[in-house]
What does this fold into?
Amino acid sequence: MYCGHCAPCTVGINIADVNKYLNLSAAQGEIPETVADHYKLFAYHAGECIECGKCEKNCPFDVKIIDRMRKAKELFGY
It folds into this structure.
C-alpha cells in the first residue's frame, strides 16, 4: 500500500515510498538501478525502523509494516 495512512513515522521513514520500491524490486526480481538510486536519497531508510508499531495502528488495511521494513532493510542493505 502506498496510501500514507501509516504516517507519520516516529523516526521519519517514508513508509509508502519504501513499500513502493520494495514492491518494484520484487516484481523485477532484482533492485533496478533507478530504484536503488532513489532509495539512497531517502532521508531515513527502512533499517532505521524502531518497530514502535505506530504505523501499523494507523493502517486501516492491516499491512504488516514492520515486517515490510525488515524485508526492505534486508533487500537494500540499510
Notes: Residues 11 and 50 are 8 Å apart (CA to CA). The radius of gyration is 12 Å. The chain has one domain: 15-76.
